[in-house]
Amino acid sequence: ITEPSILEGQIIVIFQDSLEVNVYMPIADRIMVKRADDLAEDTAMGLGIDLTNLADVFDFEDLVVELLDDAAGEAQFELQDENDECDDELSEETKANWVLRVTGFEEQEQRIWLTADWLPQKIEVYEKDSLLGTVWFRDVLVDQELDKDDISALPDVRRTYSQ
After folding, report:
1. d(Cα 19, Cα 130) in Å, to the nearest integer?
2. Would you say residue 17 has pLDDT above 60?
3. pLDDT above 60 (res 74)
């Protein structure tokens, strides 16, 4: 799946108290403001999802997770990116310690590389035996102690309110 360039750089902030969603779109240099329930309804119709039963939307019952390898101890997985650069310089905390295989997605399977802190480092998606794509997680920061105002700050641009 490729991301259309119109989505590039978008920032989405959801305010739980007001149930308002702000989407900053740099390509249009504006912020779209919408009620969260309206956005959920629009998204559901576009994807053919019935959001009236969230148990069906988040149904993980058919998924099977299997530990493929345990890299605890001396051996660590050598993760390589598409430039064939090995991640040997990673600290022990950020090297992958486990590889999980997740099945139950119709014809697809995922392989997930996890660090000792259970953070994903790489996810590969396969259909049959063909690799469809890889997502890398680099420079992940956890609990940066940012306050609500820092996180929700968006550029001072025109706002469009949808009804």
Report:
1. 41
2. yes
3. no
Q: Please give the Cα distance from 118 to 97 (Å, whole number).
A: 9
Instruction: Using the predicted structure, report yes or no on whether residue 85 has a pLDDT greater than 50.
Output: no
- Report which DSSP code applies to 7: G
CA distances 131 to 111, 120, 134, 161, Å, are 10, 18, 8, 41
Give Cα separations from 66 to 33, 102, 141, 160 (angstroms): 42, 6, 27, 46
Handedness of CA 48, 52, 56, 57 (dihedral sign): positive
The DSSP element (H or E) to which 161 belongs, if any, is strand 158-161
- Return the beta strands (E) in 4-151 as ranges: 11-15, 20-25, 30-35, 64-70, 96-105, 108-115, 120-127, 130-136
Tokens describing residue 130: 């063909």
